[in-house]
Structure formats: C-alpha cells, structure tokens
Amino acid sequence: MFGLDPFLLSLIGTVLLATFFPCHGDAVPVFRWLAIVVIAMMFFLQGARLSRKAVVDGLTAWRLHLMILCSTFVLFPLLGLALHAVMPGLLQNEVWLGVLFLCCLPSTVQSSIAFTSIGGGNVPAAVCAATASNVFGIFITPFLVGLVLARHGAQSGSVMDIVFQLLLPFVLGQILQPWIGDWAHRNKKLLSMTDRGSILIVVYTAFSDAVMQGLWHRLPVSQLGLIAVVDFLLLVCVLVITAFGSRLSGMPLRDEIAVVFCGSKKTLASGVPMANVLFPAASVGLIVLPLMIYHQIQLFVCAVLARKFAAMTKAKEAEQGAQSSPMVEG
C-alpha cells in the first residue's frame, strides 16, 4: 500500500517511451484510431460486467450514496474552481484544466472498496456507492466538464464523440450483460489486464502528441511539484469535509468510513479514456498529469488513514462489547 502502484509504474514507463520514442508520421492516425477502438471496448466491457442488481442496490441506502455522490460531483468541482480562483497563476492553463477535469471524474471501485474493508467500514455500501459513482459518472462527468470548462474559457469534446465512444458502448454492454455477464466475471483478471493495456495505449498516444508539441519544453519540473501540492490540498479538504459531514449527519462509524474513502477517490482507469474523448489530442498529455499524480497520492494517504480507521473500529467494537457484557454483582 505504501509503495508505488504497479500500474502507475507502467504508466510512467509508457510516458518515458512516448518521450523518447513518440509515434509520428503515418503511425499517428493508426494510434489515434486504435485509442478510439480500445476506449469503446473498455466501456462496453464495463457495461457487460456490471450486473443490474448492483445498479439497483446502489440506489437503496440513499443518504450514504447521496453524500458520496455530492462529494464526488459537487464538492470536488467547487473546490477545484475555488483553488483556481485563489491562485490562477500557480499552474499552467492546460494543467489547471487537468485539475478541473480530475475534479469532475467519478470515484474508483477497487481501491474504494479495499480501503473501506481495511478500515472496518461498510463494505456492501462501498461496493454499491463506487459502482453507482462509475455508472453516473459516464453521464455526469462530460456534462460537468462542459460546465466547468465553460467557466474556465475552454471547450470539451462534441456531444456525439461522447455518445459514440462512451455511452453507446456502455449501454450496449448492459443490454448484452445477461448473455455475456457470466463470461466477463469468470475472466475478470484477463479483462482487467485488457483494460489496463487499453489505458496504456491511450496514454502513449496522448503523450506522443504532447511530446511532438514540445510538452517537456513547456512544462518545467517545478510544475510537477506544484501539481502534487494542489492535488494534496484537494484530497485533504475532501477527506476533512466528508469525515466531519458524516459525523454531523449522525452516521455510524462504518458508514463514515465508506463515505470518506468512496467520496475522496478519483478514477484513473476511466479518467484517461474520458480525457482522450473530451479534449484535443495535443492537450491530453498535460491534462491527465494531475490525475496520474493524484492517483498515487490518494493511495498513499488513504493507506495511512485506513489503518487509523481500523484502530478506531476495533476500539469502538471493544467499547460496545464491554457495555453489552452483563455486570457481575459482588
């Protein structure tokens, strides 16, 4: 949990490959079309793997899920806009676009559930909440990106690109889920590798474009440190607000843990393909940098936090056990 995520290492390797051996010339349109195809396939398989029951169950514990969705799709964008308003010159324009894009993304699934489990939280609720976030994110994120970027003076991809590359494949996967869902679940590990391979192709294509446009000449090394600072501030603000918000609303500790971990995560797996659809090819490399850095920061910080929550959960269970034990009269 404390080391570098293996997938992040793969991403770093892909960025280095694109830096020293970017695709150019006749290879560029080939890789761009390949990226479009793998993105569509990825969202199709997401739809195929997601059971109807998981979608329905994700709507039952409405108060918990509403808080997580508000954190993911309301609190994050507001914080991103606030940070940009306070210090607009801290980051380059396209990097700020990347921070704002990060704020519009849905939550992760695997790490949200894993950290909730480690912390002793409400795992079934985390499963449903993370699933619901990803489903709604396919529809909400493009809409939010359009709103946020309109305030920022930028434009996102066309509605038809979003429909054909993201929504249509996902809906088609959902339609075919009764027939191919079992196969998708049986081959979850293989499909996970396919998903990650798809993301690496998109990252290589995006960074090749960015390198050919002079990415590393335009981005000083100091900007990477500043991106990490902004990402860390975002994460800490959300962690504090979700924790205190859960307590003020009277949620039990198990639900609070689910809210904190599901409400503070941002998905790299869906974020990179979405960026490829929503932004010009030459900008994608810079725009996904804040997301890649946030991905590692959230893993490290939440690993520490999960252990603290685990200790709190054990202490609370011990206290409840002592209170429920019969008093022995002398």
Automatic annotation (TrEMBL):
It comes from Acetobacter indonesiensis. It comes from the Bacteria. It holds the Pfam family SBF_like. The chain crosses the membrane at residues 6-23, 30-50, 62-83, 95-118, 124-150, 162-179, 199-217, 224-244, 277-306. This is Bile acid/Na+ symporter. Signal peptide: none annotated. GO terms for cellular component: plasma membrane. Keywords: Membrane, Transmembrane, Transmembrane helix.
